[in-house]
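This part of the workshop introduces the protein records we will be handling. To make this concrete, we reproduce a full record directly below:
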Amino acid sequence: MSEKKTFGFWAANYLCGVMLGLAVSAAYIGLEQPVYYWDFAAYFNTFNQQGALLVEEPFTWLSQLGTSIAMQDYGVAILVPLMPFQIVFGGSRLSFIAAIVSVYLVPVALFVSRISYLEAVSRVPSRGWPAVWIAAFLYTPFWAPTLRGLPDIAGCLVLTAATYLLWKSQFLTREPVASGIAVGASLWLAFMLRRWYAYAAIGVTLSAAMLGLLRIARDRDLPAFRMAVVGGLCAIFVIGATALNFQLPLIARVLGTNYGDLYNGYRTNFVTQIGDMGDRLSFLNWLLIIVGLCISIVRRNGFSLLCAIASVLTFLIFTRTQDPDRHHSLPIFLWLFPAYAQAVVAIVSVPALKSPWPTGGIAVAAGLAFLGTFFPAGRQLLSPAEFVFARQATLPLHLDNLAEYRRLIGDLIGRLAPEDRFSVFASGGVMSDALLLGMDRRLAPHIGWICQVDSRDRFQPGVLKSRFVIVTDPPVTHLQPGAQICVTIPNQHIVEGQGIGAAYKRIARYQLSGGVTGYLYEQMRPVTLPELDALYGEFRKKYPDWATPAW
């Protein structure tokens, strides 16, 4: 294929992917209620803030970018390639999601599908490329965080590059200096874009080291071992030098933080973690991945096996800290795709199956999984055949009884004096302070932020001085039972009118989403020290070191 034809081939694939991606994004966002909170809103808001700052004060923007890379967990570097979309198309939700799809998701799908396809085919020409490309483009783990407004798939681009560089250099035994520098730069870029990609970097490094050492031991190739050591040292030097030069404050904080304790509330048991991961792909997807792994073993597809080992190691390492959320599981599912592609190529290449029927079958299966995972109508229509889509849905954000939320916000705004505060003893998708703020920014100066996660935040006693509080029945939480007693116990006391609840009077009732009832209370007198001590006595049953603060 000539250079001109090659460029046209990739340009056509990219443009088709972008156009379809924009159509999907527009359809999905059109079904959403514009109620964005927590991680769903964090980068979306920053996207608009950074775009405005870049236009108005470009040098300040550049300085802030350097500071963010050096110090912030949620760094803004991941948004830099998206800025043209904000400047040209504005700050709408569609502009933001379209930017992630065009700049990150479609290139990742193209990159990983092409590599997986080339490693999956035998020496005999295969007609499997269209099927693999369609499977990658509609791969639901890529879309789940993206449609939620999380740009973390950016890390998959450089992580795929690092993986392929390790494989093509035969684990840094070929051109070790150049390969080591390139791998080190790719792994650092993943960490720089999102701090948690450090777990994935460790996972792929360990898997490459294991397979590389096994190959060297099998061949008794001492020169190759020396080359691998040189390449590994080059990679480590690049990672260390760039991290220390650009991110020293962040590195110091990471090394001084016990993330296992900090995110204890986000961690369940191993069986639950396995179940959650299994729910993020359809039964058919898992079946193809397992079949692909078996074929990879028979065919000795080393690249697919390298990626599978990296996926497992990343899962095991990450889950020692917390359960992987949709965005955290991106590298895990990224590295399972080569096995998926191996099965797709095997099916499409069966001589007895006439083209294009196998490709059409793969496209239909991937399309059904996509529809059932992301669209309510598709999920309902396909409910008799649930095995075709993921059990864990990522449906457009929606609240039942939206008018009740608007009434609650109206009541707050109408009652709040400039100096007044309100607090929300709820932490989930049905009710939280961040959710109300996402619905109306006028509430920002009045929010008394609560503790949401015991292990991370501890109870904030200042919220008991807020004039108004919102509670729910039943209590609303988003983590495992017992991980948010700083929310549930005050909520219970206020609803029942006991302890600290005796200081409050119920003034309004609201029917919230999911059958949850919300209540607005006004503080009629200050909470007393004995009431506060009784509250902390409840806390100390689980956290003995939570001492009653001065009051």
User: Anything to note?
Assistant: The beta strands are 422-424, 468-473, 504-511, 517-523.
